[in-house]
Amino acid sequence: MEGGEEKQGAMGLCCTWDIPPSAGTQAKWVRLNVGGTVFLTTRQTLCREQKSFLCRLCQGEELQSDRDETGAYLIDRDPTYFGPILNFLRHGKLVLDKDMAEEGVLEEAEFYNIGPLIRIIKDRLEEKDYTVTQVPPKHVYRVLQCQEEELTQMVSTMSDGWRFEQLVNIGSSYNYGNEDQTEFLCVVSKELYNSPNGLSSEPSHKAKVRP
């Protein structure tokens, strides 16, 4: 890859490799033992991001690392999230399995100090948060049955965002003593907003509901 060449990243995001590795290092292979899993790559790939931990490690200029019996550099990190890190250095794209958390890859990208990848993941997470906040609220209705003498108390005790919509007189269905008790259907509504985990919150209503 030539210096300054841009690669198209996932979700339409791009990254630019600033300085290509020297020609003398392009054919040298490097073995990395990340949390017990061995990865084989080249110095050219690891040095795509000059300021990264991986570039400094394989150049042996500033960092010292133990090696296993095969000569692989030992890195005590989660190998699950190292695959996307290495592939990003190879082709400049962030590719994740559907069940892989972007937050986990971000944690590793920050450890290895891979600036372009950190920016891409943060942009994707911010885009997700923005999308959640733009979801329109759901309008939910409830029908409550009450007697005439309970109506004032029911309306006055409505809370948690519920509001009165309509009152329907359904006549006298019950007789208590010598007086008929007029029954009403009270229609109330509220707006429910989606939370970040995709679930809606609906607090309980304090009005008395008759079966």
TrEMBL record:
Any Gene Ontology biological process: positive regulation of cilium assembly
Chain ranges of the BTB domain: 28-129
InterPro entries recorded: BTB/POZ_dom (IPR000210), SKP1/BTB/POZ_sf (IPR011333), T1-type_BTB (IPR003131)
Molecular function terms from GO: cullin family protein binding
A Pfam family that the UniProt record links to this protein: BTB_2
GO cellular component: Cul3-RING ubiquitin ligase complex; cytoplasm
PANTHER family membership: BTB_POZ DOMAIN-CONTAINING PROTEIN KCTD17, POTASSIUM CHANNEL TETRAMERISATION DOMAIN CONTAINING PROTEIN
Protein name as it appears in the record: BTB/POZ domain-containing protein KCTD17
Source species of the chain: Cariama cristata (Red-legged seriema)
